[in-house]
């Protein structure tokens, strides 16, 4: 089992014990509890944070930064300056320019938001701080285990990514049109949507009942490939001691193909707009899988054929393979701290600790759509209590999303892919290869005459078409993995 995987892998208790002992000894040596590394409120230490938050997320984050600066920051002598780079790509470009000291580039920030793939690449530049120096193993145990473990990579047992806000996936249903379908078809139920196979079968029935309309689509197609492969017992790749091993099992991939590509070319699944919430708004589909952090964009009405009507929502767990293991996608960027002085590094960690205190993390989750990262905060009752005490009332949809996500993470094993320098390219390939093929083939079928369409469908569903596609994709994966 790969030591870099977050699911089912936890730090050795001996390492935690040593970290706690080291922290205790440091406190004794300083003679006064926690070392403040020279912080002085009369001479505040400024720390900069680069992020990609925008909209409501940016507003929520900036409000918390202001609160910190006016309270704990003022007391300890820390001034946080946050800068949004607007998007992940712009943030990564700014980081790359800073690391390579390009002309006109800004200095590296003290803290920056990053996904694991990018962090692994930057770690080769030796710029990431081992956060374990400032956060004991006992304190790390307050956070969700898989969120913490994601930050351990590189083979040096160093903790390099601080979890701040996370997400998973949920399934959203246009309940209004589902109820009409369920009443009209008579032989479908919500329980059928618990499995990938059941979803495909329901989509076929909907296509027949509705006169040729599609039922389902998903965002972030790579998640289907990665989580589905893990559920079926064969991760697409693993990383051990920096070495990448590609599996991309043909039988497992065929099962993924049969349960997404095949329904798609038959018309049961569909992708039209940039996001599936757009497709639901237009009445193109009535069910979607998307990130829990973006699920709040689910529409309140459908506009089709020039007419609009209101719809209700239903939030369900993401379907998984009937014979598969219980893995659920874990996603969301973390925060990394760059190497500088102990004073700056410590000040950065003080802010991250403050930001992820239970009630504050719940506040950020409520305002941004993300999930909190402390174990204590990942509880529906805790969420309800916080709403009551704070007076902050969430919309019903957001409550349903977070409640469903909490349940999924408790009942399944959180899964995220291991990082290596080519991981981002590999993910992009898997995010496009199957769904891109399906969309192209479906378009060709729709453009053909009825007789030609039937011949094309038979061809595309045959073994030879899959074998050709699989061989091509595998070759590209091998090139990325450096084999």
Describe the structure.
By secondary structure, the chain is α/β, with parallel strands linked by helices. The protein is 48% helix and 13% strand. The chain has 20 helices and 15 strands. The strands form five sheets. The protein has a five-stranded mixed sheet. It has a four-stranded mixed sheet with strand order 6-9-5-12. A two-stranded antiparallel sheet has the order 7-8. A hairpin with a 2-residue loop joins strand 7 and strand 8. Helix 2 packs antiparallel against helix 15, helix 10 (221-231) crosses helix 18 (423-447) and helix 18 runs antiparallel to helix 20 (463-481). It is globular and about 80 Å long. 43% of the residues are buried. Residues 1-33 have low confidence and may be disordered.
What would a concise description of this structure say?
This protein has 483 residues and is of the alpha/beta class. The chain has helices spanning 13-30, 56-70, 72-76, 88-99, 116-123, 137-140, 145-149, 175-185, 196-210, 221-231, 250-258, 261-266, 276-281, 342-355, 358-368, 380-390, 396-411, 423-447, 450-460, 463-481, and strands spanning 45-51, 78-84, 111-114, 162-163, 169-174, 216-218, 237-240, 243-246, 287-291, 301-304, 307-310, 313-316, 327-329, 334-337, 413-415.
């Amino acid at each position: 089992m790969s030591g870099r995987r977050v699911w089912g892998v936890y730090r050795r208790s001996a390492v935690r014990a040593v970290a706690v002992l080291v922290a205790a000894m440091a406190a004794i040596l300083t003679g006064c509890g926690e070392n403040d590394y020279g912080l002085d409120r009369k001479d505040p230490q400024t720390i900069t944070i680069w992020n990609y938050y925008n909209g409501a997320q940016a507003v929520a984050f900036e409000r918390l930064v202001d609160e910190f600066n006016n309270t704990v920051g003022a007391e300890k002598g820390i001034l946080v300056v946050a800068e949004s780079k607007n998007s992940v790509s712009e943030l990564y470009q700014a980081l790359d320019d800073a690391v390579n000291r390009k002309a006109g580039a800004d200095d590296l920030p003290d803290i920056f938001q990053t996904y694991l793939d990018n962090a692994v690449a930057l770690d080769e530049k030796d710029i990431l701080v081992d956060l374990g120096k400032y956060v004991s193993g006992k304190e790390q145990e307050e956070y969700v285990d898989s969120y913490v473990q994601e930050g351990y990579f590189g083979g040096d047992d160093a903790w390099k990514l601080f979890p701040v806000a996370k997400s998973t996936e949920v399934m959203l249903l246009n309940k209004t049109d589902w109820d009409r379908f369920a009443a009209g078809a008579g032989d479908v139920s919500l329980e059928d949507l618990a499995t990938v196979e059941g979803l495909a079968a329901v989509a076929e029935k909907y296509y027949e009942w509705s006169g040729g309309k599609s039922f389902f689509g998903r965002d972030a197609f790579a998640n289907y490939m990665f989580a589905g492969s893990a559920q079926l017992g064969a991760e697409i790749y693993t990383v051990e001691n920096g070495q990448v091993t590609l599996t991309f099992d043909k039988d497992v991939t065929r099962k993924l193909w049969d349960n997404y590509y095949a329904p798609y070319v038959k018309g049961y699944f569909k992708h039209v707009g940039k996001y599936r919430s757009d497709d639901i708004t237009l009445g193109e589909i009535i069910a979607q899988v998307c990130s829990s952090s973006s699920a709040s964009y689910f529409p309140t009405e459908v506009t089709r054929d020039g007419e609009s009507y209101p719809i209700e929502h239903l939030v369900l767990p993401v379907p998984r393979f009937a014979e598969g293991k219980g893995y659920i996608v874990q996603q969301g960027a973390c925060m990394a701290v760059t190497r500088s002085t102990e004073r700056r590094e410590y000040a950065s960690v003080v802010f991250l600790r403050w930001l992820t205190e239970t009630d504050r993390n719940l506040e950020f989750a409520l305002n941004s759509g993300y999930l909190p990262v402390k174990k204590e905060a990942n509880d529906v009752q805790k969420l309800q209590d916080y709403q009551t005490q704070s007076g902050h009332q969430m919309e019903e949809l957001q409550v349903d999303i977070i409640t469903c996500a909490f349940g999924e993470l408790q009942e399944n094993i959180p899964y995220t892919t291991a990082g290596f320098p080519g991981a981002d390219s590999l993910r992009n390939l898997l995010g496009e290869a199957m769904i891109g093929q399906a969309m192209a083939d479906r378009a060709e079928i729709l453009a053909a005459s009825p007789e030609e369409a039937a011949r094309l469908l038979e061809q595309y569903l045959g073994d030879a078409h899959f074998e050709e596609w699989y061989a091509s994709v595998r070759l590209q994966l091998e090139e990325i993995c450096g084999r």
